[in-house]
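Tutorial handout. Part one gives the primary structure; part two gives the three-dimensional structure as tokens.
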Amino acid sequence: MTAHARGAREGRPGHAAAGLAERLPIMAAPTFAVMALLTGIFASDAPDMLCSSAHGASPLNGMASMYLLMSVFHSAPWLKLISRWRSAHMAGVTPEGSM
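Part two.
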């Protein structure tokens, strides 16, 4: 456990903020993905920032596409986390046939 995580549990405000700052990059991509989904589902007929001539042809226009792109751009922390998890998992796995 890191010192930041221990500090957050012990109630020290400086360490709690540092713990949140460590988790913030992980929270960005799913937040933007949910915002894209909700915007695509509940999109109103109000004009979007990125208007097209075939307005309404795709649920991924305007704000929904912007949120989807932001989710993709903020996916690097998830890719690093998955890479670390796979590396740790592969290091603990023994080859078949050996004991």
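Part three, for discussion. The chain is about 65% helix and 0% strand. Residues 3-43+54-92 form one domain.
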